[in-house]
Design a protein that fits this description.
single chain; 521 residues; mainly beta; Immunoglobulin-like; four-stranded antiparallel beta sheet; 36 strands
Length: 521
């Protein structure tokens, strides 16, 4: 099948654009009215069991969620896989659920390998020490015995307690876990560990696979990494908080490592940065990388010491400086409802818009909250008319969203806690807005689409300095083809994994249109 996309270019002015439908409404084709709740293990109302933390979407559209499962005594890794309509996928584990017990365990992050295997990272407490925990499952939910012989790896960082909060996969299949580690003196640092594909420590990274970094001298700050991401050049970006012990005030903190684990001194001169939104504490909880190398860091800012919090987002240039094109100073805060908010997930759409999720507090209790921002940091009023979507689920005190993902069709899937259950919510999200320009029309045909090995782009109009840029579903540039001048171009997938991509026609470093691409087996 041959698909054609029309890109419109203006040298004068931009005309208004339209979207197919209002974004942000609940997708009633999913679960019950757009919501699915699942009991995983025993319900423990006193100890807050049932949290679903990370979410990932397979290439076939199935949704994988991991969270905390209670077994009557302690907590285990719980993993659930859903079909595209929200029903449990009975081909996975036992009736769609897998529970893994190797101590007192708390899953915090998830990733799906190109071969479909599922990685879940988090925290393990067995005996007297808290350790990094990493589990790999096969596509049917069984433990992958090619991964450290039993599918499970626990790692002590430096003799003290350590907690893994975020996981990222490199293009070579190596696995990066980030969190915090306590040294022998009791001080917390950013802690990052890299594993080989078989679960062994990668000794080419840091010291025997581990790197600890303090934002200051040991003891002056207490540092925790909450998010990690891999740049296209292989450098590793980690974000979280650094707490000044003298004042007990924390700040957004981020650093960038070279591929060997050394600090990248091209990033804010020493490889590390901190940023504050006001006089009180701030915490970065999530991280997304734009296709142009900029960093979007989401989290929370306190209105008073030990007081309520509001959504906080900062955008940094690739050199670590604040991006002043983002709300003039690189920082945006959003108060939703009363002064009790929590932002836990940040992702990018293919068009560059920023989605964040968490919870906000109304007069009656907590509600699920998703916010969408334009590229310049302003609220996107095409998203539920004001940029903010609040979903009520019985105003439960422990209701909130902890993770976001985008489906191939653009729909937004969020995971979290709905009272004492794993919760998954899906929202409608119209296809990327079509931008209309005056004066000239460029037609590009793409065939075949979907494709497995290669496809062909054909432009009917020549441009100077035109290129084709291809981004993955989280907004990272994965391939670029320059000098598109009315010629036929063969696009080869090379090492790109299966999934959804967006091809942008670029003119003078600006996108003048986009086309979805789907790579299959």
């Amino acid at each position: 099948m041959k698909l054609k996309t029309t890109f419109l270019l203006s040298v004068l002015f931009l005309l208004p654009f339209t979207t197919i439908a209002q974004d942000g409404s609940l997708d009633t084709s999913f679960g019950t009215g757009g919501v699915v709740t699942t009991i995983v293990g025993a319900v423990d109302f006193l100890n807050l069991a049932g949290n679903a933390y990370p979410i990932a979407i397979q290439n076939d559209g199935k949704i994988v969620v991991a969270g905390k499962s209670y077994n009557g005594f302690n907590y285990d890794f719980g993993v659930v896989r859903y079909n595209g309509n929200g029903s449990l996928d009975t081909s996975f584990g036992t009736n769609g659920k897998v529970i893994t017990d190797f101590g007192n365990d708390f899953p915090k992050s998830i990733a799906i390998q190109s071969d479909g295997k599922i990685l879940v990272g988090g925290v393990n407490f067995s005996g007297s020490t808290v350790k990094f925990a990493l589990v790999r499952y096969t596509t049917n939910g069984s433990l992958d015995t090619t991964f450290d012989t039993d599918g499970k790896v626990t790692t002590n960082f430096s003799g003290g307690d350590c907690h893994a909060y975020s996981l990222a996969l490199q293009s070579d299949g190596k696995i990066v876990l980030a969190g915090d580690g306590r040294d022998g003196s009791g001080f917390l640092s950013f802690a990052t560990i890299r594993y080989n594909t078989d679960g062994s420590l990668d000794t080419t990274f840091g010291t025997n696979g581990k790197v600890a970094t303090y934002f200051g001298t040991a003891g002056a700050t207490s540092d925790t990494a909450n998010a990690v991401a891999i740049q296209n050049d292989g450098k590793i970006v980690v974000a979280g908080l650094s707490n000044l012990q003298a004042t007990n005030i924390s700040r957004f903190a981020a650093l960038r490592y070279n591929t060997d684990g050394s600090l990248d001194t091209s990033f804010d001169n020493d490889g590390m940065l901190t940023a504050s939104f006001g006089a009180f504490s701030d915490e970065a909880t999530s991280l997304a990388l734009q296709n142009d190398g900029k960093l979007v860091i989401g989290g929370n800012s306190s209105l008073a010491q030990n007081g309520g919090k509001i959504f906080a987002i900062a955008r940094f240039n690739s050199d670590g400086s604040l991006d002043t094109t983002f709300d003039s100073d690189g920082k945006v805060t959003t108060l939703i409802g009363t002064s009790s908010n929590g932002l836990y997930s940040t992702i990018l759409q293919g068009d560059g818009k920023i989605l964040v999720a968490g919870f906000s507090n109304s007069l009656n209790g907590n509600v699920l909250t998703i916010v969408r921002y334009n590229i310049d940091g302003s609220l996107d009023t095409s998203f539920d008319s004001d940029g903010i979507v609040n979903t009520i689920y019985d105003f439960a005190a422990y209701t909130g969203l902890y993770a976001l993902a985008l489906q191939n069709d653009g729909k937004i899937v969020a995971a979290g806690r709905l009272n004492n259950y794993f919760g998954v919510v899906r929202y409608n999200n119209a296809s990327l807005a079509t931008t209309t320009f005056e004066n000239q029309t460029v037609t590009i045909s793409v065939a075949p689409n979907p494709f497995s090995s290669q496809t062909t782009f054909q432009s009917d109009v020549s441009f100077e300095n035109a290129s084709l840029s291809v981004y993955n579903s989280i907004g990272q540039l994965v391939k670029a083809i320059n000098n598109i001048n009315g010629q036929q171009i063969t696009f080869s997938r090379d090492n790109l994994p299966n999934g959804l991509y967006f091809a942008h026609l670029m003119q003078d470093n600006k996108s003048i249109g986009s086309q979805k691409l789907v790579i299959t087996e």
